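hey m, so remember when u said the tokens were messed up on ur end? i reran from scratch. heres the input so u can diff it against urs
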Amino acid sequence: MLTSEQLKTLLSEPKRIVITTHFKPDGDALGSSLGLFYWLKAHKHDVSLIVPSDFPSFLDWLPGLEHVRIYTKEVQENQKLIADAEIIFCLDFNGLSRIHDMAVPVENATGIKCMIDHHLEPQGFHDYEYWDPKAAATAQLIFRFITEEMQDAEHISADMATCLYTGIMTDTGSFRFRSTTSEIHRIIASLIDCGAQNWAIHELIYNSSSEERLKFLGYCLLNRLEVFPEYNTAMIYVTQEDLKKFEVITGDTEGLVNYALSIKGIRLAALIIDRKEQIKLSLRSIGDVPCNEICKTYFNGGGHLNASGGNSHDDLQTVINTFKSALPNYKEILTK
């Protein structure tokens, strides 16, 4: 396994580099990737940022977005960039299945694979890792990687700071999750000092909903919310018809699960969406309710203790029934 010192030596001279992140990039995935992109460009590297899919429209203002390449739009060109890369940075994921169609090209690439991530149970595809499952966000790790491992705090520009702030803010629920440590606040203070405009970032992320999205949220809360008081659990499910009716686009379901979790007394919340090709499930919890264990056991997934995801190729009703049937196994921890 490559050390940080060895990687620092490699990066002391310009290299052909690819940065990638997981399918359907969120604020942390895109923010950390763009933050690293700016840092590598400042050091004269030839950098390509390639993502496996589109991303939420509430991120379309991020600095440097014009440099982001979507893999499926230019497959041959992107495959060549991956094959020719001397170093491939893999951010905010720890298993190649998370990058979907990019998995095989990245796996077959001869470039050094560097994983920077905070999710549990890395799958060992990489040559270098900067991994901390206790970190709140990958953007936090990018800040540490640059300032501590690469010892280059002076090269954090305003654009970099904006991207990293966005990543940390979105992955900590605007700094309200239990992962928001004093270190997070110190990093955020540094990013503001470097030029991140916190008030503007909040406005662009959280006050940019379309009229259709608000109607969709209202419909879900009125018609698709179920509460199971005996388990302190709530669930929202979304059908294919719902997605079509409200013309739901990437990012419109972001944060929907948190409405269920916001109900007084609720310790576990689920969002189950019929995406046609598969059923997607997101879990959020409070305290020591193990979302990651539930997702791993029942839904081919995993993640963090209080925030995890999974999927299933069963039909929507079967997945809903599976979730409900799992609750009695966790009644003690849900009701204590």
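this time it looks ok to me. The chain has two domains: 4-206, 211-335. if urs says something different then somethings off w ur setup not the seq
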